[in-house]
Amino acid sequence: MAAAPDRDVPVALEQARVLHDWLSEHGDRFDAATALPGWDVATLTGHLLVCLDGLADAPDRPTTERPLAMGLLVQRYRPAADEMTAAATARAVDRSPDALVADLATAIDRVTARYAAGRLPQTVGTPRGPARLAEFVRTRVVDLVVHADDLRPVDPDGPPALPRKPLAAACRTLTVILGEQHPGRSVEVRVPPYAAVQCGVGDPGPTHTRGTPPNVVETDPVSWLRLATGRVGWAELRAAGKVSASGNRADLSSVLPLLS
Q1: What global pTM score does this model have?
Q2: Among 30, 40, 211, 222, which is most exposed with the fewest C-beta within 10 angstroms?
Q3: What are the boundaries of each domain within the chain?
């Protein structure tokens, strides 16, 4: 049975509200740099608005086109990076921090109201192509969680929280994407306590169906979030001891990031 299209909307809204509250307390830092090169807090807030507006509008864009697999959908993000930056900048231009925070509250209310109204299609048009609504919602959860983490340089002692449910959902979605983009069973990737997936790295190599797999990669949820979205590299995390890898194929450097 397909997942209900709105199942993960409360999870997205939980992270969005955390971001709203954090930004409302940091109005004097909207010109500060985030973890994303070239993006200050105002630009990132503009992107959050674009993200939430897209989430609110998606149910009103039903399509009969065949939906793209989530792994393919997110591969279309990278070529559109300049377009996404331009949209974020335009959304934030000439808006004060207070106005942007108010806009964020309005966007959250729009999402809440639209999904509460029901009448949700299974497949919708998105800026990157047709998608199952349930999967599009999951990509918005990833977006909100990773951008919350992108704000950590602004206030290292008090960055936005990453609540358990949004972080867990983001980790699960990213492991699903990894499995879709690189199908196979040569490597098992574990992100305890939230997710695990088998994927293919290199030539087919050995597979496993029971017991301890021959090639295992394991990391914590926040490290996986940063690694999968290109915020940090494989070698850097390995050197920092944030990733354990056993087996001669347990190297994800050739398949990451999944999106950036």
Answers
A1: 0.94
A2: 211
A3: 7-162, 171-246
CA distance 210 to 147: 37
User: Distance of CA 34 to CAs 41, 42, 132, 146, 207, Å?
Assistant: 6, 10, 31, 12, 41
Backbone torsions φ then ψ of 120, nearest 5 degrees: -100, 125
Q: Quick one: which of 20, 235, 3 has its CA closest to 108?
A: 20
Per-residue pLDDT tens digits for 95-120: 999 999 999 999 999 999 999 998 99
Q: How far apart are CA 227 and CA 160, in angstroms?
A: 19
Q: What is the pLDDT of residues 192-214, one digit of tens each?
A: 999 999 999 876 545 545 556 67
Q: At what angle do helices 9-24 and 41-57 cross, to 10 degrees?
A: 150
Q: Quick one: CATH architecture of 171-246?
A: 2-Layer Sandwich (3.30)
DSSP state of 95: -
Per residue in 117-139, pLDDT (tens digit) is 989 999 999 999 999 999 999 99
Structure tokens at 70: 């989530």
Region 7-162: CATH code: 1.20.120.450
- What's residue 2's pLDDT? 62
| Burial of 92 (C-beta count, 10 Å sphere; 0-12/13-18/19+) | buried
Tokens of 110: 């729009």
Residue at 16: amino acid letter: A
**Do 7-162 and 171-246 agree at the fold level?**
no
**Per residue in 12-28, pLDDT tens?**
999 999 999 999 999 99
